[in-house]
């Protein structure tokens, strides 16, 4: 069920009762969702650069773009419920000594109704995946694989599902130079994709808006993909001097045939949600106005099925491919390590950072 006005008002009251300060980033998010839910898209002039607090608020609100009021209300209620009911996202799993403490900076993770929901939470950066976010997604997936939920869902907070790799990840060059950076990125990416290959329960993507780069390629490793009709699917690797990852060089041709996969992965053709569904990458598309309600109603029903049986059935569908996928992942990362050191890739990143280029 979509959050009602009453749920929204209850959530506003709950915020006042929070025992722990949720931190500035979450407070800005709450502010922005509140304004969007009550007034719609940001309609006030941008404050001056020295008015830091109001500028931060304005940025947070305006980044929600044209997010409908009822989606904003729902996101507000979800965010407050995650703050009040499960402030320690991995509380169902004992963290090992070598793990980061519970509490995510780039994600909101909730677990209820048999569903663990991992939400990308960098809406001001269109949910681009920073190095920290790669690490946190791996931790959240590990916790979800061990908790009691039947299903695990990935989705985005704000108007984007995810804008792919955070291109500023490549600006933090270590003393060993670009070569060392490419090597460490190779290892991070390989481990990250491995978590999706090995994930033991049904893994569902709820694609709430545009998806770019690695957030698209990974969809081939999900068990179901539900998309809003606002979502688009774009893998602009060639324009970035990069090559396909997330096992897409294997899964995409298998899902849609090699000609359609080439259009996406080599020529960077952006697909609408309808096109992605016709090509088998997306399971079903819903109108944005009913997307959240319809998807969560369906997932809550699926989550009532016996959790162990869901695991067993997923495993029998996926297990034959696992070794192959591991080999593909390794090969893609080797190729990317070389690409990241190429002139094409460096120029593309510099162009984006100097705002000369966008998708
Ligand atoms: C360990 C390494 C592993 C590497 C794995 C490799 C993966 C490959 C990929 O994922 S390739 C895909 C990379 N992504 C992109 O190329 C997207 C780049 N972004 C854009 O083109 C645009 O931002 C947009 C089309 C996604 C959205 O455009 P819009 O005009 O609506 O919004 P802004 O451009 O103003 O964006 C708002 C702020 O968000 C920042 N941002 C958006 N995407 C990214 C990104 N991928 N990386 C870093 N930052 C991003 C953008 O810079 C704005 O920030 P600002 O407000 O501080 O300026």
From TrEMBL:
Subcellular localization(s) per the UniProt record: Mitochondrion; Peroxisome matrix
Biological or metabolic pathway of the protein: Lipid metabolism; fatty acid beta-oxidation
GO cellular component, one term: peroxisomal matrix
Ranges that cross the membrane: none
Domain ACB: 4-89
EC number: 5.3.3.8
Pfam family, one: ACBP
Acetylation is among the record's keywords: yes
Source superkingdom: Eukaryota
CDD domains given in the database record: crotonase-like (cd06558)
Family under the similarity heading: In the C-terminal section; belongs to the enoyl-CoA hydratase/isomerase family.
Protein purpose: Able to isomerize both 3-cis and 3-trans double bonds into the 2-trans form in a range of enoyl-CoA species. Has a preference for 3-trans substrates.
Organism encoding this protein: Tupaia chinensis
Catalytic activity, as annotated: (3Z)-octenoyl-CoA = (2E)-octenoyl-CoA; a (3E)-enoyl-CoA = a 4-saturated (2E)-enoyl-CoA; (3E)-tetradecenoyl-CoA = (2E)-tetradecenoyl-CoA; (3E)-nonenoyl-CoA = (2E)-nonenoyl-CoA
Name of the protein: Enoyl-CoA delta isomerase 2
Gene3D superfamilies reported in the protein's UniProt record: 1.20.80.10, 2-enoyl-CoA Hydratase, Chain A, domain 1, Lyase 2-enoyl-coa Hydratase, Chain A, domain 2
Recorded GO MF terms: delta(3)-delta(2)-enoyl-CoA isomerase activity; fatty-acyl-CoA binding
Record key words, sorted: Acetylation, Isomerase, Mitochondrion, Peroxisome, Phosphoprotein, Transit peptide
């Amino acid at each position: 069920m979509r959050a009602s006005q009453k749920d929204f008002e209850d959530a506003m009251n709950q915020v006042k009762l929070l025992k722990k300060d949720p931190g500035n980033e979450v407070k800005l998010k709450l502010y922005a969702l509140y304004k969007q839910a009550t007034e719609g898209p940001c309609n006030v002039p941008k404050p001056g650069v020295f008015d830091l607090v109001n500028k931060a608020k304005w940025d947070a609100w305006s980044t929600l773009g044209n997010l409908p009021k009822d989606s904003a209300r729902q996101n507000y209620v979800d965010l407050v419920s995650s703050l009040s009911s499960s402030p320690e996202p991995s509380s169902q799993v004992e963290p090992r000594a070598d793990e980061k403490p519970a509490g995510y900076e780039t994600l909101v993770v909730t677990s209820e109704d048999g569903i663990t929901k991992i939400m990308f939470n960098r809406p001001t950066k269109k949910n681009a995946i920073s190095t920290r976010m790669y690490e946190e997604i791996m931790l959240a997936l590990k916790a979800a694989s061990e908790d009691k939920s039947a299903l695990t869902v990935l989705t985005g907070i704000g108007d984007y599902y995810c804008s792919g790799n955070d291109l500023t990840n490549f600006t933090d060059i270590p003393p060993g130079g670009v070569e060392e950076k490419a090597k460490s990125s190779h290892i991070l990416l390989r481990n990250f994709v491995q978590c999706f290959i090995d994930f033991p329960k049904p893994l569902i993507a709820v694609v709430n808006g545009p998806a770019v780069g690695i957030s698209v390629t990974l969809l081939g490793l999900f068990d179901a993909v539900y998309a809003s009709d606002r979502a688009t699917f774009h893998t602009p690797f060639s324009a970035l001097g990069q090559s396909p990852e997330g096992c897409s060089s294997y899964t995409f041709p298998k899902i849609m045939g090699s000609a359609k996969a080439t259009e996406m992965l080599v020529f960077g053709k952006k697909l609408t949600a309808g096109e992605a569904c016709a090509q088998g990458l997306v399971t079903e598309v819903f109108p944005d106005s009913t997307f959240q309600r319809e998807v969560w109603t369906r997932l809550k029903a699926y989550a009532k099925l016996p959790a162990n049986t869901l695991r067993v059935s997923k495993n029998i569908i996926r297990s034959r491919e696992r070794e192959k996928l591991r080999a593909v992942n390794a090969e893609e990362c080797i190729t990317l390590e070389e690409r990241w050191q190429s002139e094409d890739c460096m120029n593309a990143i510099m162009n984006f950072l100097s705002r000369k280029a966008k998708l």
